[in-house]
Amino acid sequence: MAATASNDIEPVEADKPLTNAADNLPFVTGARAGMSEDEIALYDRQIRLWGMRAQEKLRSANVLLVTARALGNEVGKNLVLAGIGSLTVADHENVTEEDLGAQFLLATPSVSEVVPSDATPAQRHGADRAAAAAVVGTNRAVAVSQQLSAMNPRVKIAAEQRDVSTQPASYFQQFSLVIVTDRNPAVLNYINTATRLQNQPFYAASSYGFYGFIFADLIEHEFMITRDRGNIVSKPGARETRTRTIVNVQVEGEEGAAGVKESITKREVYSTWYLASDASPLPQSTRSVPRRLRNVTPLLACLRALWNFQENRGGKENFRMPNVNSATDRAEFIGLVSKKQAFLGTPPVAADKIREFLQSVESMREISPVTTVLGGQLAQDVINTIGHTQQPIQNLLIFDGTTMQSSVYAMHPEMSLGTAQLATAPNTTAPESASEATGGTMSAAVGRALAAGTAAEAAAGAPAPIPIAGSPIPLPTPPQASG
């Protein structure tokens, strides 16, 4: 296969993504034409897995990763090693000593600080303390980005030290995909609404001790699978599920001959975080089969109760987690679990499961095996989405680290899905209809926030993004504070 070895980059405007005329799929700012022979050799095994075309799309993608805790570390590592085009790591928090326990991208000594093989235990301990002292108190995005850059110098890495939840919706336009980890429901709702306005794919994920989740809102996403043709003919326009439709079918080989293959393009439609996280019932295919209903993980009701509890603790309480030692918190949380379980129609959640869940989530403990598995699942789904290969998560994955099982549920309201959820909102004259269609995010207050961001917070001494490797990814100027 012919390859272009040039690494020159033509500057383009950050808010005008390039377009690949071959397949009419969006390419990002700074994309280079073709892959060099060195790159093909470097990524040979994964090219064999998902193909050259998917690898080129991955190489051209510009991803935003919000929050660089343990889960973000895993996602960032996997995307960088896979050969993502550029990655912006956004985190406004500083590194603490607690972060060093599970976040492997922190406190790594430089080559000159590596102790010799015959070092004494005291010398090794001193080197560890020196490495920790060098990173504690620094910005988390900067610290993580330095190590990500060392993992794969071909990937452009930038560190964003501002809280992106204070930025206007237009901020997210420069990215081809946005991933938000370990943030509260209000932030997820805001950023998901912003990415919807920019027609950008959105992922959310969090780990809570032994438990975690992944949520995807890809709005309307097409992907292609190639397989041997079976006895049942796939037809364009056929609906496989409520969310999945066959868009196109291409047959390779002569009809009736052995080894005939078909390439099927399918489209999945999605709902917003706001609607999927609380207002949506289980899919009809689950509700209508008692055995399936009984097998729904109790974590679904627990997670919905947790998000509801956090929403009730906004403002001064900063969306805090329930305190397992507080009788008031326990009673409220148990009541919320019961309410969510009744809405879903699933069996009551056992008291010991609620207690285990509360103990796990209270301090947001980071357990490396859990974040490793969850981060790997999320990164692989992002790769599939960017490459338009394989069926993506639809749309909520729940991970139980006590059983090492992942359960996926298509959580959607009884209304139009995909672009219709947001596109119809501005045209309606009934406020309640607009609120329902957008998950309540088009209220006047949130509408102003989407237009201008929380200007006072964003402009108050916010540092500019720091380029870590290669050319910096241009970011919009923070909005000016208004009187």
Automatic annotation (TrEMBL):
<keyword id="KW-0436">Ligase</keyword>
<feature type="domain" description="THIF-type NAD/FAD binding fold">
    <location>
        <begin position="134"/>
        <end position="410"/>
    </location>
</feature>
<feature type="domain" description="THIF-type NAD/FAD binding fold">
    <location>
        <begin position="43"/>
        <end position="111"/>
    </location>
</feature>
<protein>
    <submittedName>
        <fullName>E1 ubiquitin-activating protein aos1</fullName>
        <ecNumber>6.2.1.45</ecNumber>
    </submittedName>
</protein>
<feature type="compositionally biased region" description="Low complexity">
    <location>
        <begin position="463"/>
        <end position="472"/>
    </location>
</feature>
<dbReference type="GO" id="GO:0004839">
    <property type="term" value="F:ubiquitin activating enzyme activity"/>
</dbReference>
<dbReference type="InterPro" id="IPR035985">
    <property type="entry name" value="Ubiquitin-activating_enz"/>
</dbReference>
<dbReference type="InterPro" id="IPR000594">
    <property type="entry name" value="ThiF_NAD_FAD-bd"/>
</dbReference>
<dbReference type="Pfam" id="PF00899">
    <property type="entry name" value="ThiF"/>
</dbReference>
<dbReference type="InterPro" id="IPR045886">
    <property type="entry name" value="ThiF/MoeB/HesA"/>
</dbReference>
<feature type="region of interest" description="Disordered">
    <location>
        <begin position="463"/>
        <end position="483"/>
    </location>
</feature>
<feature type="compositionally biased region" description="Pro residues">
    <location>
        <begin position="473"/>
        <end position="483"/>
    </location>
</feature>
